Amino acid sequence: MRLHQSPASPFVRKVVVVLKETGQEGDVALVTATGTPVNPDAMPVALNPLGKIPTLERDDGPALYDSRVICRYLDDRAGGKLYPAGPRLWETLTLEATADGISDAAVLMRYETAVRPADRQWPDWLDGQWAKIARSLDALESRWISHLSGPLDIGQIAVGCALGYLDFRHAARDWRSGRPALAGWYAAFATRPSMAATAPV
Ligand code: GSF
Q1: What distance in angstroms lies between residue 104's CA and the mean position of ligand 1's atoms?
Q2: Please, how many CA atoms are within 13 Å of residue 188, restricted to the half-sphere of its CB?
Q3: What are the strands of the beta sheet with 29-32, ordered from one edge?
Q4: Which atom of ligand 1 is closest in space to residue 104's alpha carbon?
């Protein structure tokens, strides 16, 4: 299999962490992809019409995307350990969706400042994206610490990758301020070998 990827992407990082946590790293070759919404460049558009990464190219079936589908496929392929059975599954998937929403908003903010011409940037829109992130971080702090502290699952991995991306691209926003429990959880989670080996560059 071939994973079309860039090491800066929080969504790609989810997939690589899952590969490491499930012992499948040797089964996937990494293919570097570059591009933006206005210039797909080397994005795998022939495999994924959305022109986004991560995209997983398989030898025995169509390409898979997005990160939620790829992570679930890889976990299933390894025998399944990151998606709990029973009612906890719905909590886990909602946690993953919350984390991915943080990453989506953070990536859109990055495009607004790094891709859009300076004279067309709109501060209110940036503030609106950060407001989504701030509300989601507050929810993680007030409602999700117990789940985050339980057995490893895809929700935790997605949160770890989202917080790592905030440090990478939006450090000045200081997401830890007023969220000591989440900051403490992340400090420990970031030391997992799978996380330490995949810090964005
Ligand atoms: C989001 C992937 C994404 O936005 C997923 O895989 O979960 N829902 C998808 N990827 C970005 C790269 S990034 O993470 O910075 C991407 O491919 N952007 C190119 C574009 O055209 O939006």
Answers
A1: 8
A2: 10
A3: 29-32, 2-5, 55-57
A4: 4
Rounded to two decimals, the pTM is 0.98
Size (the chain), residues: 201
pLDDT at 60: 94
Q: For a substitution probing ligand 1, which of 15, 48, 52 has the most ligand atoms within 8 Å of its CB?
A: 52
Q: Which two tokens stand for residue 6?
A: 């860039």
From 6, 11, 17, 38, mutation site for ligand 1 pocket: most ligand atoms within 8 A of C-beta = 11
For residue range 2-55, list pLDDT tens digits in order.
999 999 999 999 999 999 999 999 999 999 999 999 999 999 999 999 999 999
- Assess whether the C-beta atom of 54 lies below 6 angstroms from ligand 1: yes
Tokens representing 44?
């795998």
> Which pLDDT tens digit goes with each residue over 144-165?
999 999 999 999 999 999 999 9
Does ligand 1 come within 6 angstroms of the Cβ of 52?
yes
Domains of the chain: 2-77 (3.40.30.10), 87-196 (1.20.1050.10)
* Contact present, 101 and 9 (Cβ < 8 Å): no
Q: What is the pLDDT of residue 128?
A: 98
**Average pLDDT for residues 94-98, to the nearest whole number?**
98
CB 171 within 8 A of CB 177: no
